[in-house]
Design brief:
Elements (H helix, E strand, L loop, with lengths): L20 E6 L19 E2 L2 E2 H11 L4 E6 L3 H8 L11 E6 H5 L4 H9 L6 E6 L2 E2 L7 H9 L4 E6 L11 E3 L8 E4 L11 E9 L23 H9 L3 E5 L5 E2 L3 H9 L7
Parallel strand pairs: 1-4, 1-6, 4-5, 8-12
Antiparallel strand pairs: 2-3, 6-11, 7-13, 8-11, 9-10, 10-12
């Protein structure tokens, strides 16, 4: 069995300017979205006229990113089929490769396990984003990429103000919290009074985070090890290896039918 199946081969690498590929996480079952996701994978649910995953691909193409990897599990063939129709998409300049986890193992590998599986297809620095999050205004900045590439952090996260369904947040910041300035990301203990923010699922990563000593899984994850991303991030935060900044643009975790319906009821001028 081949390690990966690919819709189109990765584009040739160019020496200048340096680019980062992107990984779109699309392997989740979408249990909270049932019954909608019983027959449709969550990244293909339609928000304001097009599938969720398409919003991200358009933004990546706009930023000049030419290579993307999509991991799939539940109903994964639907995602590959949908993105193969050029009359259905508008990201023709992006070469899309696939890591079909369900096809290879019969289950999804969770976030870190899925990234390690796809690592041979990714650049040394790469974007990661969840395909089921709606963030139409997010810009995949080349300036942010260059700064991250030149620095020592292993990950850079975009955090958002806590939504109603996740009031306690995920991580804190060791620095200003009222601007989008870059600061050290913190895994705050429960008693710490400093503000926490929610991880937007958008971030920049270096391959080193998914290799020893941070991650024990063999590159390419040939054994199909399931592993979450949060433990790796917390371990790296403890060593000052993760930075973050606050994103205040439109952002929705489209995790329930009610949130999906709410987005589709709003007029463009009233979003998010």
């Amino acid at each position: 069995m081949p390690l990966f199946s690919s819709l189109t081969p990765p584009a040739p690498r160019t020496a200048c300017p340096p680019r980062a590929s992107a990984m779109l996480l699309a392997a989740g079952r979408g249990t909270r979205m049932r019954p909608l996701t019983d027959t449709c994978p969550k990244p293909l649910l339609v928000v304001r006229g097009q599938p969720l995953i398409q919003w991200h691909l358009q933004a990546l193409a706009k930023a000049g990113i030419t290579r993307a990897v999509v991991n799939t599990a539940w109903l994964g063939s639907q995602i590959a089929d949908a993105l193969s129709h050029t009359d259905y998409i508008s990201h023709r300049n992006i070469s899309i490769s696939y890591s079909h986890e369900y096809h290879d193992f019969g289950y999804a590998l969770e976030t870190a396990g899925g990234i390690v599986r796809a690592l041979p297809l990714l650049d040394d620095v790469f974007w990661v984003l969840a395909a089921d999050v709606y963030a139409p205004d997010f810009f995949f900045s080349q300036d942010a990429l260059k700064c991250f590439r030149a620095g020592t952090p292993l990950a850079h996260l975009w955090l958002v103000p806590n939504p109603a369904h996740h009031p306690k947040g995920d991580f804190g910041l060791d620095g200003p919290t009222d601007t989008r300035d870059v600061a050290q990301a913190l895994d705050l203990p429960p008693a710490d009074p400093r503000p926490r923010y929610t991880y937007s699922t958008i971030g920049l990563y270096k391959k080193a985070l998914f290799r020893p000593p941070w991650c024990p899984i063999a590159e390419g994850n040939p054994q199909g090890v399931c592993a979450g991303l949060a433990p790796l991030l917390r371990a790296a935060m403890a060593q000052g290896k993760v930075t973050a900044q606050v994103w205040t643009g439109a952002w929705t975790d489209v995790g329930t039918p009610e949130r999906l319906a709410a987005l589709n009821r709003r007029s463009p001028s009233s979003l998010p």
